[in-house]
Amino acid sequence: MGKRISLKDIAEKVGVSTALVSYVLNGKEKEKRVGKDVVKKIREVAAELNYRPNQIARSLRQGWTKTIGLIVADIANPFFGTMVRVIEDEANKFGYNVLFGSSDEDSEKLGALIDTLCNRQVDGFIIVPPEGSDAAIKRLSEREIPIVLIDRKMKGQNIDSVLIDNYTATYEATNYLLDKGYKRIAIVANKSSLNPMSERIGGYCEAMKEEGLEKEIHIELIKYEHTRADMAESLDKLLLKESKIEALIFTTNSLSISGLYYFRNSELKVPEDVAFIGFDGDEAFDFFYSPITYIVQPVEEMGKESVRLLIDQLNGSRKTVQIRLKHSFIEQQSC
């Protein structure tokens, strides 16, 4: 590896001071009244020597790195994969790069990722917080590091967040099924204390209660780390052994996909034996033998709003903002 070209190398070749070279290469030539011929010569020599600025040193001088730390639940999940792409593209418009990782819904892994990204001197964070991450998020907030939560929010913490109205999403989905004549409707959710999951369950319960169907409320809670195994056990119980459920609402993309795997290997058919509503779109929804009806989160708008809120904080805003976006509903053949 050859010697790294420094400002001093350029200055010696042009015959000027190192400070003068620094002014030009940092865009301060007008402020410092550097002559046009000198500016041109310095830039020509810098290009000739293939000069590359030391970004770490520059960041230390300026107090920022123009990077954002992004932590999602699972980059392999199409919903979060799309979210990462949107946030990356939007951040680039403001001159920021994005460093990202997956927590795998593990609070300890989230803490390790936060430490790593803090060591990289990121200017702020956009985080999809897993269950049990309250302490890690609180520590970031207390350090006054700008942070935006996306897709989820934390109880009792006054932090910017962007998510949909989860309660209304499942309330409307349940009423959609009720209007079609289904009565024995179950909801399949992750076992989680996070606010969005409890809201999704709450919207379903409220719609059932309004219809006088309190006794027909069925809630199946699936552990994130055992999704496939727990799904088979839960759906066997709901559809074959006990309740004879007529319709199912799945509350996440990964749960919806696991539900599709179950029916692919089952003698039961959608919608002949049971209606199916998923959450968040996926190509599998359209290629399933009965294209799936599903709730859609506006992931592009969520990503853009999260970047906007973080940039506002980086520019000095101290106003806490909670954004609730409207979901949409894709009606296909599974109901």
Q: What structural keywords apply?
A:
335 residues; alpha/beta; 434 Repressor (Amino-terminal Domain); Rossmann fold; 3 domains; six-stranded mixed sheet; 12 strands; 46% helix; 17% strand; elongated
Describe the protein's architecture and organization.
It is a single chain. The protein has 335 residues and is of the alpha/beta class. The protein folds into three domains: 47 residues, lambda repressor-like DNA-binding domains (434 Repressor (Amino-terminal Domain), Orthogonal Bundle); 127 residues, 3-Layer(aba) Sandwich (Rossmann fold), CATH 3.40.50; 131 residues, Rossmann fold (3-Layer(aba) Sandwich), CATH 3.40.50.2300. Helices cover 46% and strands 17% of the residues. The chain has 13 helices and twelve strands. The strands form two sheets. It has a six-stranded parallel beta sheet, with helices on both faces. It has a six-stranded mixed beta sheet with strand order 7-6-8-9-10-12, with helices on both faces. The model has no long low-confidence stretch (mean pLDDT 90).
Mean pLDDT rating:
90
CATH superfamily of the largest domain: Response regulator
Overall shape: it is elongated
CATH topology assignment of the largest domain: Rossmann fold
Category from helices, strands and their pairing: alpha/beta
Helix/strand order: HHHHEHEHEHEEHEHEHEHEHEHEE
Strand arrangement within the widest β-sheet reads 2-1-3-4-5-11
According to DSSP, the number of beta strands is 12
Q: Rg from C-alpha positions?
A: 26 Å
Integer count of domains: 3
**Name of the CATH architecture of the largest domain:** 3-Layer(aba) Sandwich
N-to-C CA distance = 63 Å
What is the CATH level 1 assignment of the largest domain? Answer: Alpha Beta
The proportion of residues forming helix, as a percent range, comes to: 40-55%
- Poorly predicted segments: none
The number of distinct helices, counting runs of at least 4 residues, comes to 13
- The proportion of residues in beta strands is 15-25%
Characterize the main sheet: 6 strands, parallel
